[in-house]
Amino acid sequence: MMIAALNLLAMLVLGAWLAATFDRMAPALWGGRARGPLAALADGAAMLTRPATGTEKPDAMLRIGAPLLYLVLAAVGLAVVPIGPAGALIESPVGIVIWGSCEALIVIAVFMHGWAPNSPFPLIGAYRYAAIALPVMLPSMFVLIAAAIPAESLSVTAIVESQREVWNVVRQPLGLPLFVLVGLTLTLRGPMDYADGLDLAGGTSAEQGGRGRALWQMARLAMLVAFSGMAAAVFLGGPLGPVLPGPVWLWLKTALIMAVVVVLGQAVGRTPPANMLKLLWVFGLPISFLHLVAAGALALW
Amino acid sequence: MNASIIVLILVAVYTGWRVFQADSMVRATFALLVSFIAVAGIGVILSVPYIGVATVFMMAVEMMVMAIFMVAFMMNSAGLNPMSMVHQEKPAMAAGLLTWLGLSAAVLTSRLPDNPVPADNRAVRDLGIELLGDSMLTFETGGVALLATMVGAVILSSRRGRYGPADEGAQPPGLMAGGAPAGRRPEEGGGHHHGHGGHDMGGGEMGGHDMGGHGSGSEAGGEDMHAGHDMGGQDMDGGHGTGGASMADARPNMTGHEAHGGMEPGSAATGGADADDPHRAHRTAGTGGTSQQGHGAMGHSAPGAGEDARQEHGPADDPDSHRGDKRR
Q1: Is A214 contained in some domain?
Q2: A14-26 pLDDT, tens digit each
Q3: From the list B50, B58, B64, which residue is nearest A94 (CB)?
Q4: pTM of the entire predicted model
Q5: Longest dimension (CA), chain A
Q6: Of these four, A82, A239, B78, B123, which has the most CB atoms within 10 Å of its CB?
Q7: pLDDT cut 70: percent of chain B above it
Q8: Looking at the domain assignment, is residue A82 inside a domain?
Q9: ipTM of the assembly?
Q10: Predicted confidence (pLDDT) per residue in B277-315, tens digit
Q11: Number of structural domains, chain A?
Q12: Strand, helix or coil at B270?
């Protein structure tokens, strides 16, 4: 228990730093300027020292509540990921449903963050995000249920165990790509960043500076760690692997998913929300449903 | 365990009370969400993990949708003015009290089971067999049929829209009498709506006009004709360009032609005059156009004619060029 708690803390803090560093190194892939491992820390420190900005009649409780909720959701989401044979910090027979609840509450957290400042751009970001993120919940649900079918359990530990022979990324090839789409939405990145996009001058963060902004960014990075840990557990076998101890495998796989999400987030452009909504309902939903049907058929066969 | 249940009950009651104290719809909704989550936590502690956790995500999504709709439909959604969140207080109090008394009585008077179910007892399966037996397939088929009926009912009831049948291209009325349809137009077929908003709309409305306002302009001749053009200049020039070629073609082409409508009334007039000769109309309208983008969209043979086009405008503005109208 103690080890799992320490691992959770270390993964959140170090993982957030690693994600921020990936963010600063990724531009090198397309000829941009890469920045070193200290740049993320310097940027964070600079953000902390900047003064907080205020707006007229903000909803102060939601304003501080939104980043805190986002951060807590990242911690809870990561806590259901098993770090080894001993299981997870929150070992539950319905671990995957706990993760799903965290996903649904993320939409609330982001909406709160956009609502609280009482300002147009954050509010538009909040509405856009809610409109996009709610239909993204459906592929997420189908993908996770499909992963639970071979395990015959909703427990994440059981899902990891079910991948001892073959990983879900092989058995259910559509699962990971669809889940990465969900991850981009949950972490407000690139093609799915309808909340904090530059086209809205920062969206839900447009009116925030100083410590509040730093907390929000930290929560986003922590959420990337939590999502990557979950994706590693559900599709890449989590702590399963030869030679190295379980937690190390989980860290490596988490870092790999994190790098993929960071690169996709920076390399893929964002389409207008109306297009994305259409894509999600007309293509995303049927594809994820077919994925679920295929997983079920494979399990029966 | 008992302590945490008591804490969760207190949280649920407190946040439930806050729902009616908050001014802001969003705060009220999220307070209700916290109340539900506290109840879900009680469920988890009382060993119904699935129902407890599922309550959280169902309520999260529901409250999100509810917050959006309440903000959309309430007049004072953000709590910027003081507002009472309660109405019909006395009947509501009476109903709440009665419900509470009834539930409490049910809990206190019923004999709760005290023999634990063995772990290998397949209680859920037995319950399912007991409820449905062999009719599971019938039940599921009925469910899908009901869903299809619901979708069909929505489709049928939404066909008759506010401005006419939805499947026949219902359009709202114009802002002025006979004007272009109000509201945003869907982007189809290229959609080069670059800056000439007025022209585009004219194109849509006149849609290959048969000498509508334009014909009268040329009959008036001389000075008045220009007036006529100016009048049309806002609404119709795009339409002239359109009239040139898209009359015979499909409407979606229009957007491409609109770009040719150009700024100059004269050129547009020429385009309109040759409505029955699409090729010529292309040419005249095209050279009259001042927009490279328009040329590209058309894919016709007057690329880079920007400067020349301006010079050719002169004659186009002459009354002579409008003889075409009369000829037609």
Answers
A1: yes
A2: 998 999 888 888 8
A3: B50
A4: 0.69
A5: 61
A6: A82
A7: 50
A8: yes
A9: 0.87
A10: 444 434 433 333 333 343 333 334 444 444 444 444 444
A11: 1
A12: helix
Residue of A61, A103, A108, A278 to mutate for B, most B C-beta atoms under 10 A: A108
Could you write out the DSSP letters of every residue in A212-250?
HHHHHHHHHHHHHHHHHHHHHHHHS-TT--SSS-HHHHH
Rounded-to-integer distance, Cα A253 and Cα A239, Å: 8
Percent of chain A with pLDDT over 90: 38
Task: Please tell me the distance from the alpha carbon of residue A75 to that of residue A71, in angstroms, as a whole number.
Answer: 6
Query: How far apart, in whole angstroms, are the C-alpha atoms of residue A294 and residue A194?
Result: 31
Tell me if A29 is assigned to some domain. Answer: no
Give the DSSP per-residue string, A142-191. HHHHHHHHHHTSS-HHHHHHTTSSS-HHHHSTTHHHHHHHHHHHHTT-GG
The angle formed by the CA atoms of residues B33, B38 and B44, to the nearest 5 degrees, is: 125
Which carries the bigger pLDDT value, residue A102 or residue B270?
Answer: A102
Partners of residue A94 in chain B, C-beta under 8 Å: 49-50, 53-54
CB A212 within 8 A of CB A60: no
d(CA B228, CA B277): 24
Give the mutation candidate from A68, A69, A105, A129 for the B interface (greatest B CB count, under 10 A): A105
Residue A287: which of A103, A146, A153 has the closest Cα? Answer: A146
Classify residue A34: in a domain, yes or no: no
Contact A111 B67 (CB under 8 A): yes
Per-domain boundaries in chain B: 1-75, 197-327
Strand stretches in chain A, DSSP E: none
